[in-house]
Design a protein that fits this description.
250 residues, Ribosomal Protein S8, Chain: A, domain 1, Structural Genomics Hypothetical 15.5 Kd Protein In mrcA-pckA Intergenic Region, Chain A, Alpha-Beta Plaits, 3 domains, alpha+beta, six-stranded antiparallel β-sheet
Length: 250
Amino acid sequence: MRDDEALKKRFCELISRGNSAGYFIFTDFLGLGELSVLKSLLRGGDEAQVGFFGGCEGCERVMARFGSPDELGYDEPFPIKALKISPKSKKYAEALTHRDYLGSILALGITRDVIGDIIIKDNDAYVFVKDDMSEYISDALTRIRHTDVIITEADADGIAQHRFFRRVRVQAESERADGIVAKVFSLSRERASGLFVKSLVFENGTQISGKSTLSVGSTVSVRGYGRFIYLGYETTSRKGKLNIDIDVFI
């Protein structure tokens, strides 16, 4: 509770400063819990003063930028760089996981809040980092587990193309979040409802309840299970259930 109150106080100060500072203010990368707290504090005109970006479209971990380009009269990019981590020898490379990459980066003495999403494709990984940490990581990270690696700067605009989805269709009684989460991750309704009670489910970075109705195009994150994009439904089954299309991140 104390941590939540301290976080709210910090964000309220940033919102206030962003409305009057005359320049942009950036946070570090925010996790889902932090992002949900910040969004819960935005009211009216505040929403136009705060932007979110993680390096490319669809990122779960994002920075917040306080200040409006329209009011300030100029724009400033988010201080994010994308790094590509590749094995020196693909022939002898291990099958590395998200945990392997993240653990090796954090072992350099780096805190989690300067690291954004990690996207893995084949034997390569694309990592979003704060721009002032990119050079250090590029120089210091030479091995992940038993695999020697090389690091180069990546084209952030092209990284979104490396995200892969698995299109699935589920049937549900309604667009209620708990029922859809249960179907997507093959859970009982009771177990899915428990995830909402434990504050583990977020829609576009905002914590939601199991009774929430999902919005078409929104990204739903379920801690410990994964993420999916809710695409809505166009048809119903003979028994009147909704045929819902989902893009599951893989």
